[in-house]
Queue: 2 jobs
Job 1
Amino acid sequence: MRSNTHILLGILAGSVYFHYFPNHNIVLQILFSLALIFGVLLPDIDEAHSTIGQRAGFVSKLIQKIFKHRGFFHSAWMILILYALFQFVVSKYLAINNFVLMGFLVGYAAHLLGDAITVNGIKPFYPLGLTICGPVRTGKFSEVLVALAIITWIVTH
Ligand SMILES: [Zn+2]
C-alpha cells in the first residue's frame, strides 16, 4: 500500500479514536495528528525505498537487512512493545502526553491494517508463518477504490 493511502487510513483510524477518546486541548490535537502521521509512516522504515525509508537512509537499509520488509516491524509484537514502552517508560519519564502517544500507536496499527488488506499481507506473529492478506493490489485500481472509499467516509462524517 502506498504512503498516501496509508495516511488516509491513518486519518480515518485517528478520527474513530478521537470520536471515542476526545481531547479538547488544541495543542494536544495537533501533536496527536503529527504523531499519528509519523506512526502511519514508520513501519515502512523496514523498506529502504519507502517514503520514510528514503529519509532514514542507512538506518532503513540496516533495518531491512536485519528484519526484512513486512517482517518484525509489521507485526503485532511491535504494537505491544511500543505500547509497553509508552506506558512504562516514555509517559512516565519523558512526560509526553498519553493522548499523543496513542495517536502514534493508532497510526502504526492503521498502517498494519492497511498492509493486511493487500495481496502480500502481513505476518502479525512474525516469524510465525500465519499471514493475513486481502484483495488490494498496491498501486492498482483496487487501492484507488480503497482510497476513494476512505475519502468519502472522511468527507461524510
Ligand atoms: Zn508497510
Job 2
Amino acid sequence: MTELEYGVLKGVGGSTINRLLKAGFTTVEAVAATPARELAEKAGLGAETAEKVALLALMHVDPGFVPAMEVLQRRRMMMRCTTGSKELDRILAGGVETGSITEFIGEYGSGKTQICLTLSVMAQLPPEQGGLGGGVAVIDAEGTFLPERIVQIAAARGMDPKEVLSNIFIAKCYNSDHLSILIDNLPGIIEEKNVKLVVIDSIISHFRGEYLGRENLSERQQKLGNCLHRLMRLAETMNVAVVVTNQVQASPTVVYGDPNRPTGGNVLAHACTHRVYLRKGRKNTRIAKIIDSPSLPEREARFIITEKGIEDVEEAGD
Ligand SMILES: Nc1ncnc2c1ncn2[C@@H]1O[C@H](COP(=O)(O)OP(=O)(O)OP(=O)(O)O)[C@@H](O)[C@H]1O
Ligand SMILES: [Mg+2]
C-alpha cells in the first residue's frame, strides 16, 4: 500500500489531498478502489478533480501491460486462508485466496454461513498457521452471523474468543441499496482495521426479494453486477479475500439428478473467481464441489459441521 500524501499523485494539489485524507482515504489503493462519483461526494471534490484523482490513483495501482513474470510475482503476494477443513482446503488449492472472490452456493442448511463463520475465525491466525493475520469485515444480509457461534468456534479451536470477536466487524444489511452503501464503506474499514477477509452472506437474498418478475430482472442484474464489480476491484487493489454466499433455485427443466442451480445468473457466475457448490450428505456431513474456476479442477470434498465450525469428517471422529 502507498500512503496518500502530497506528491504521490502527480498534479494533484495539497488541498485536494487534504480533503481526501479528511474523508478517510489514507492510501492510494483506497482511492483507486472508489469510483470518481463517490470520491467527489465523500471528499467534497469537483467532478473534474474527482475524475482526475480517480484516474491517477488507478494508474498508480495498475501499471498497465506488464510481463507475465511480474504478474506471477504479484500473484505470489496472494495469501490463502484455511477454511478449517483440510479436505475443503485441498480442493481450493490451500484455502480461500486474497485478490479473488470465492462463492459458496447451496440450499438452506448446506453450510454456507458455517463456512463464513469458521473463515472469520481462521483468518485471524497468523499466515504460518494458515490464516491471513488480519481482521474480518462481514456484511450480514440474513441476520444469521451470530457472535455466540463465533465464540464457540474460537473456543473449540483454542483461540481467545474475546480477541477473535474484537477483530470481526459486522454490518447488518437491510436492502440492496444498503448493500451498495456498505460496499462503498469497505475500503475505509479494510485500511483502518487491517481487514484481510470480507464476507457477504448472502450477496443475492435482497436482490431476489426486491426485484420480482422478469421485467425487473435486467435492472436487478445491473445493480448486482455493479456491486460485484466493486468487490472485485477491492479484492485486487487491496489484496483481500472476498467470500460471498449464494442461494439455489430449482430448475424446472431438470428431470434427473439435482435440480438446483445457482441463482444470480451469468452476472454472478462471471464475477466470482472460484465457485463452490455445497450439498447435504449423511448426518451433519456436507459435500463441496468446485464448479467453475479458472485454475482449480472440478473436485469434491467432504466436511462436517461441529462446534469447531466446519472440519474434516475424520477429525470429528465420524
Ligand atoms: N454448533 C453447531 N454444531 C453442529 N452443527 C451446527 C452447529 N451450528 C449449526 N449447525 C448446523 O449447521 C447447519 C446450518 O448451516 P448454515 O447455517 O451454514 O446453512 P446455510 O447454508 O447458511 O443456509 P441458509 O441458506 O438458510 O442461510 C444446520 O444443519 C445446523 O444443524
Ligand atoms: Mg446462511
